[in-house]
Amino acid sequence: MRKHSIFKVAGGLLATALLLSGCSNETTEPGAGDPSEATGTEPVTLIVATFNEFGYDDLYAEYMAANPNVTIEQKKAATSQEARDNMNTRLAAGSGLSDIEAVEVDWLPDLMQSSDLFEDLASDEVKDRWLEWKTEAATSTDGRLIGYGTDIGPEAVCYRADLFEKAGLPSDREEVAKMLGSTWDDYFNVGKEFVAKSDGVAWFDSATAIYNGRINQLENAFSTSDTEEQLIPLDENTDIKDIYESTLKAAVDDKLSAGVAQWSPDWTNGFQTDAFATMLCPSWMLGVIEGNAAGVEGWDIANTFPGGGGNWGGSYLTVPSMGENTAEATKLAAWLTAPEQQLKAFTAKGTFPSQVEALDSEELANSTSEFFNGAEVGKIMAERAAAVDVNPYKGPQYFAASTVVQDAMNRVEVDKVDDMQTSWDKAVEEFASLQ
After folding, report:
1. For 193-223, how does the pLDDT look when each residue is reduced to its tens digit (9 = 90+)?
2. What is the DSSP letter of 182?
3. Do 303 and 354 lie in a common domain?
4. pTM to 2 decimals?
5. 245-254 as b/e, with b when 16 or more CB fall inside 10 Å?
6. What gap in Å lies between CA 68 and CA 377, rounded to an integer?
7. β-strand 44-51 against 70-77: which pairing, if any?
8. Tens-digit pLDDT profile for residues 143-160
9. If we measure between CA atoms, which residue out of 245, 205, 244 comes closest to residue 222?
């Protein structure tokens, strides 16, 4: 039977100050507590375009109830790629974007080259609202802030405790964290043991999911971060080739992967058919897992991550200047990203706050998940965020470069049309066209 709510508040207090080093907690939030303070009185319809799960459904209803003159229409893309393709098409056409457009961190650097097409959202009211690095990524060289931070994506490992028990492995989350070790080799080796003892259940869902976890531990994955930024030729990029080869070896040769592409129908169905026992789970993935695994019991969270720590994802709300309601859209975007609303979104879908005051709240510290076997999700994700020690540089071509490598991996693992070397050679050739 499906659990009704992903999170509930429990007792106790966790100090999350490790997350907030160098950031001020003294902020002024426009309309943060009272949505009726955030808008005017003229009738207005605001279209908000997001993707995956942002946890905003109930917030839209709350905002409209407090502001009868405002109608919010939601556009939700199935994937970040779909949202990006739509934005690029509409920007090129010069029309058609929503009043508020969500942007994923991996394609934000490319968008920053067209920052003049978006409203400058900087103001005294939102100064120091977010973690410093979160704001810097959305700030242009001339000081324009084009995005309000929504969430960050500290990573843990989610697993099926019931499938672990069937395979004779520990299932308690503290014991699982120890068993998984601290390196990617440790994680893969436990997977070999699991697969040998399980009845056709894969260890993880997708090779590209593992790739994304690993690439976010590199300071410079595809380009240098000096003043003369240059793409690193793929055939000379030993870090990326190592991740490509070792991940595919584990996925295909060692048969640890379910061999499905994330976000595909086969991947979604895999949650219902016991297709895999673990998956890397940035905080925003918790709501996705609960939704896809409706009726399935046994999911839990281990407070660990191979290779140390990692942050995968995190998004922003932007206000395209081509919109007719930019002032009202800015007010709504500010309200949605205020601390109270970030905490509500976390409660709804697990999107971990990027807002300083929200991160420092007792409510976040005390959050638990009924669906994930009562796990202290607030504490776990706060500690996972504190474990992140690399803030990857992602230049304007990061998304396109990364897509080349992921496509190469899918040709081997999912489509099964190429062997590892043939697909890599194709990726090298395709990558060269980006330079």
Report:
1. 999 999 999 999 999 999 999 999 999 999 9
2. S
3. no
4. 0.82
5. eebbebbbee
6. 35
7. parallel
8. 999 999 999 999 999 999
9. 244
